[in-house]
Amino acid sequence: MFAKNKQRLDHEHDTPKVDWVVVGAACVAVGLVSMMLVAGSVRYHSMEAHADVVSHEFEAEFDAAVTLGVQ
Question: For the whole prediction, is pTM greater than 0.85?
């Protein structure tokens, strides 16, 4: 039994091979896709924040004591 397993381990030509170029390309592709998703989300939220700031009217005067919570 041990001789059969040793023979199987000695003959590794039947095992599946890993093509490291394909694995590397897959890692790069996953990185690019995730960067595109994050960039799209950041662009959307920054435009939304810009619209909120532009449409908001600020008052010229305010009570600093009330704002700071000092009474």
Answer: no
